[in-house]
Amino acid sequence: MSKIIEINESNFESEVKNSEIPVMIDFWATWCGPCKMIAPHVEEASTLYSGKLKVGKIDVDNNQQIASQYSIMSIPAVMFFKKGAVVDQIIGAVPKKALFERIDRILSREG
How far, in Å, CA of 60 to CA of 8, rounded? Predict the structure, then answer.
């Protein structure tokens, strides 16, 4: 069962900035083919890393202020936040193995 949180301008502060655990955000849009390619990997990550990583999605068409704030120029873009700050990002569709390796690396970092 999916544990993905729909992030928007009204809950960004509480879900991402104030999160106690690292957060992975998938910036996407309904018309984006590569976004649909990585969606199953993002979905799987939300259950596999439940409790260790919060997984959210931001529709860039409906949340242009957040997309602009983080200079999202191309999607899919996956950003990783720790204590409200961006610590890593992936631009474009990547294989599941590459995404999960990046998640493991983020979660293994101290601090």
Answer: 9
Cα gap 72→78, rounded to integer Å = 10
**Cβ neighbours of 4 (radius 10 Å):** 17
Active site residue 35: yes
Active-site choice (23, 24, 35, 58): 35
Alpha helices by DSSP H, listed for 1-63, are 12, 33-48
CB contact set of 74 (below 8 Å; sequence gap of 6+)? 91, 92
32 is catalytic: yes
The pTM (predicted TM-score) of the whole model is 0.94
Written as one letter, the residue type at 10 is S
Query: What angle do the packed helices 96-108 and 33-48 form, to 10 degrees?
Result: 50
Average pLDDT over residues 32-41: 97
Domains of the chain with CATH codes:
5-106 (3.40.30.10)
